[in-house]
């Protein structure tokens, strides 16, 4: 029941009484159920062994032009010699349209820009599936949306199998044997160990998607037993959860034969900054384990990739994958990705900015529409995150420090959460049954979500004012803005900066909504709107008071990115990391969250896991760990000419759709192929050379 017991004559009236009155009970209320919105297609649920296996086949095939132009000319070994001993084989029965044919291009449009190709050294490639396509990882999770719930476990990938020791404390993994990087150099445990020792475990390097040694538990070690066998040793028994952390984007090794010579440990002439930046976007033909290799880059225009002649996956007929010869990434905007996909000048989009829903739906509904548009569950969500470090992360000034003290105060967080009208925020993006009120924590509609454990503080502006008054945040100088108490930040105006990503209209629209809704409260929230790369750098280095952002897969799947659900390590969490002395100044409720998440990681008992996540949700939402804003569904837009797109592919669950749809087995039937290849009948050139050969 929603109780409005707080009626105050004016701000500042009877402080003691108002504060007492504003206690938890009165602030909480009934959380409305999200509006009905059924996903438009359901996955066909299968076992992992139905999807793939590793085995040698009697014969292998490749596009005819590869044989005639390269193999017969002696510039490339025959396909059977380029493949590993036992390639990964995708099973025909799991391919919606069966064995495919070679040819054509998938034209992506992205809003990011490549910083360079040193992914493990921390460089972004501009997102939108570029890095997902380049990087192959020990395990894989994107396609898990179609795996039976009771058989859920990451798919093998570069690690083709693994065993746990009797005591559950060590995990031996067998790497794919005889696979090669796209330039023909062998892939083996050296690549894995270079990633682990000199990137993850070198505190001077920050791999792009946030891997730190603690991502696999404190005290975990990794060693190579032979070129194709690695062994993990954990402090706890059976932490099967870490198999998920071995997938994209935390355990995808880079080409050690190319990167190592630039790393300061092996090249004392280089600084860490030089290592990170040693492979600028202009560097072509970086060796990858992924299905396509970058062969052309034009700034603010396009990245073109050609098929990797050493790709190590095949179909059951022995055809080397991928089927698609080329990949384009137009360097434009995320909003343009939707427009182009719907119009047919682009091929793929994750429709994730709610502002584009109505227009995209209208145009895709026409019979002549070139693309299919299919909505999934509500897995896109935004929260307002406050910086919880009070011991120096990001080196705040006096004002910033005073804000962090406030961020750590529950009454303050409650004041902010009840000051926001979430219904209005959602409606400002799109009207209709899409957006749902999001109270924070796990998303409604996902496996571990439990409504009864969710504490919701509905919109209540009077209570917000009373709480702020109670904290002594009053407008002492009469300029309409509340002031810090006299002993904090010189008693100046209560000013808080809000970080948001200008690459996405939704991010800045929501941030502007927050700013506008807090203004009548006497809080001056100042927009700190930055382009994606700059925003990510500021967020990673703790240089923010507050930030509005789209959240990761941990609040959708829980099993992917689990260690980011709480500050389980010094650098695992998005808004609370260790301060200058390396320690985490956790509040008692945060410690409870950490313990709960660690207990979740330590057990694989489903009933116990469900209980732990109820507790997590309860502690999280009761303490307003972050201020939930809105959650809504996204839709996959894909040109109708593509085949083998799995039913019910979500745009975001364990990973993004670029991984989920298994692009290496996507094809275009011969009679529907377009004439889009910019470098037909070419293959990647030598690493660092100017273009395709
Ligand atoms: C960006 C886009 C997402 C998805 C990912 C893939 O974040 O917004 O839709 O394409 O990149 O990395």
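^ Assign residues to that structure.
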């Amino acid at each position: 029941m929603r109780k409005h017991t707080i009626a105050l004559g004016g701000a500042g009236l009877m402080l003691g009484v108002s504060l007492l009155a504003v206690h938890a009970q009165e602030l909480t209320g009934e959380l409305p159920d999200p509006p009905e919105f059924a996903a438009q297609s359901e996955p066909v649920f299968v076992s992992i062994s139905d999807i793939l296996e590793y085995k040698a086949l009697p014969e292998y095939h490749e596009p005819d032009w590869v044989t005639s132009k390269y193999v017969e000319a002696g510039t490339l070994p025959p396909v059977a010699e380029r493949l590993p001993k036992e390639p990964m084989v995708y099973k025909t029965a799991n391919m919606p349209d069966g064995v495919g044919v070679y040819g054509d291009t998938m034209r992506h449009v992205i809003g990011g820009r490549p910083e360079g190709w040193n992914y493990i050294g921390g460089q972004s490639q501009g997102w939108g599936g570029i890095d997902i396509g380049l990087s192959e990882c020990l395990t894989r999770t994107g396609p898990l949306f179609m795996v039976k719930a009771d058989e859920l476990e990451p798919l093998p990938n570069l690690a083709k199998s693994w065993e746990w020791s009797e005591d559950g404390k060590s995990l031996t993994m067998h790497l794919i044997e005889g696979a090669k990087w796209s330039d023909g150099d062998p892939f083996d445990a050296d690549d894995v160990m270079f990633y682990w020792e000199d990137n993850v475990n070198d505190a001077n390097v920050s791999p792009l998607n946030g891997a730190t040694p603690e991502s696999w538990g404190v005290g975990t070690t990794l060693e190579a037993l032979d070129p194709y066998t690695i062994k993990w040793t954990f402090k706890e028994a059976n932490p099967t959860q870490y198999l998920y952390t071995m997938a994209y984007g935390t355990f995808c090794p880079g080409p050690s034969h190319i990167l190592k010579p630039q790393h300061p440990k092996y090249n004392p002439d280089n600084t860490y900054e030089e290592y990170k930046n040693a492979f600028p976007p202009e560097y072509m033909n970086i060796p990858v384990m992924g299905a396509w290799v970058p062969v052309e880059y034009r700034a603010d225009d396009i990245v073109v990739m050609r098929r990797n002649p050493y790709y190590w996956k095949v179909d059951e007929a022995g055809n080397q994958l991928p089927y698609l010869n080329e990949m384009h990434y137009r360097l434009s905007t995320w909003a343009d990705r939707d427009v182009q996909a719907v119009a047919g000048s682009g091929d793929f989009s994750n429709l994730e900015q709610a502002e584009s829903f109505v227009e995209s739906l209208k145009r895709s509904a026409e019979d002549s529409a070139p693309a299919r548009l299919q909505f999934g569950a509500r897995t896109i969500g935004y929260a307002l995150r406050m910086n919880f470090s009070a011991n120096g992360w990001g080196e705040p000034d006096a004002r910033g420090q005073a804000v962090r003290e406030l961020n750590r105060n529950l009454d303050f967080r409650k004041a902010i959460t009840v000051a926001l009208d979430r219904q209005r925020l959602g409606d400002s993006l799109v009207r209709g049954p899409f957006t749902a009120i999001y109270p924070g924590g796990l998303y409604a509609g996902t496996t571990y979500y439990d409504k009864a454990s969710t504490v919701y503080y509905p919109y209540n502006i009077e209570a917000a004012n009373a709480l702020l008054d109670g904290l002594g945040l009053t407008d002492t100088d009469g300029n309409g803005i509340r002031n810090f108490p006299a002993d904090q930040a010189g008693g100046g105006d209560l000013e808080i900066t809000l970080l948001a990503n200008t690459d996405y209209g939704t991010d800045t629209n929501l941030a502007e909504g927050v700013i506008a809704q807090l203004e009548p409260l006497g809080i001056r929230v100042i927009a700190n709107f930055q382009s994606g790369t700059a925003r990510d750098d500021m967020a990673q280095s703790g240089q923010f008071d507050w930030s509005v952002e789209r959240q990761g897969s941990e609040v959708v799947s829980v099993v992917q990115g689990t260690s980011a659900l709480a500050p389980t390590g010094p650098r695992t969490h998005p808004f609370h990391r260790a301060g200058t002395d390396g320690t985490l100044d956790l509040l008692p409720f945060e410690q409870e969250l950490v313990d709960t998440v660690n207990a979740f990681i330590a057990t694989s008992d489903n009933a116990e896991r469900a209980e732990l996540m109820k507790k997590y949700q309860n502690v999280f939402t009761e303490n307003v760990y972050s201020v939930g804003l809105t959650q809504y569904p996204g839709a996959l837009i894909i040109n109708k000419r593509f085949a083998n797109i799995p039913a019910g592919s979500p745009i975001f669950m364990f990973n993004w759709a670029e991984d989920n749809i298994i692009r290496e087995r996507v094809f275009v039937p011969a009679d529907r192929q377009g004439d889009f290849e910019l470098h037909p009948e070419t293959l990647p050139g030598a690493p660092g050379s100017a273009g395709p050969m």
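Residues 483 and 492 are 5 Å apart (CA to CA).
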